[in-house]
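quick q for whoever's on today - can somebody do inverse folding on this one?? i tried earlier but teh output was garbage lol. tokens:
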């Protein structure tokens, strides 16, 4: 997770991107994993061993992602589209278009789909709940030294609101994540660590799956940076 960073990312937190550049990023994110994330969690849930705590935790995560029932909002893919509407991007812009995706984006998406239902379940759960849902801030977030902004300030300080004119009311996704994601981060690590003994084949499979995901993700982000026409020097 310490390496889940891409040189093109800082450009997204600063002003200066054209609307087509923002759209290239968000449309990829939506089609590659945002839209189908709850269904991917369902795949992982479907291959778990009969462990009450693991199934419960995945079911809660899936319920929130597909309904927003825990945070009192709505399905997270839907919240994402509302955030896009706040930026002025219409819903139909995000309709499925496989042919449009960068080939590296398709490869990363295909890896997620295949690995989400591949044994051992610990690797599938780590892939989705740690690698995909987590960020480069994982270590600090778990250690308590990085705290996500919450409530109104989280929204008003969000780059899309601050620099790109997104309506604050359209940022329910940020509110939902601030509310539930802290608990999910801890749950994710507990589930995987409790059932992956050190030096076991399972532990090795977890690491290997996440390493492959990281490689595919970095290529995916390179592909998006290419579509956004970001210059590495300028973005660094
Ligand atoms: Fe989410």
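ok took a stab at it. sequence:
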């Amino acid at each position: 997770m310490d390496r889940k960073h891409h040189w093109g990312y800082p450009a997204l937190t600063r002003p200066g991107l054209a609307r087509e550049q923002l759209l290239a990023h968000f449309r990829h994110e939506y089609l590659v994993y945002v839209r189908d994330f709850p269904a991917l969690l369902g795949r992982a849930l479907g291959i778990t061993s009969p462990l009450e705590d693991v199934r419960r935790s995945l079911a809660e995560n899936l319920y929130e992602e597909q309904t927003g029932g825990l945070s009192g909002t709505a399905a997270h893919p839907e919240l994402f589209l509302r955030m896009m509407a706040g930026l002025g991007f219409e819903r139909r812009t995000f309709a499925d278009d496989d042919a449009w995706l960068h080939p590296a984006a398709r490869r990363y998406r295909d890896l997620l789909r295949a690995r989400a239902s591949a044994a051992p379940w610990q690797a599938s759960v780590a892939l989705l709940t740690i690698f995909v849902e987590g960020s480069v801030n994982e270590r600090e977030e778990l250690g308590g030294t990085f705290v996500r902004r919450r409530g109104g300030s989280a929204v008003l300080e969000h780059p899309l609101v601050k620099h790109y004119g997104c309506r604050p009311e359209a940022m329910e996704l940020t509110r939902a994540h601030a509310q539930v994601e802290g608990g999910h981060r801890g749950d994710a690590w507990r589930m995987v660590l409790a059932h992956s003994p050190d030096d076991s084949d399972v532990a090795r499979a977890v690491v290997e799956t996440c390493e492959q995901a990281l490689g595919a993700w970095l290529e995916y982000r390179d592909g998006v940076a290419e579509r956004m026409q970001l210059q590495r020097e300028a973005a660094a």
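fwiw The chain is about 65% helix and 0% strand. also The pocket of fe (ii) ion is lined by residues 65, 76, 177 (CB under 6 Å). so keep that in mind when u check it
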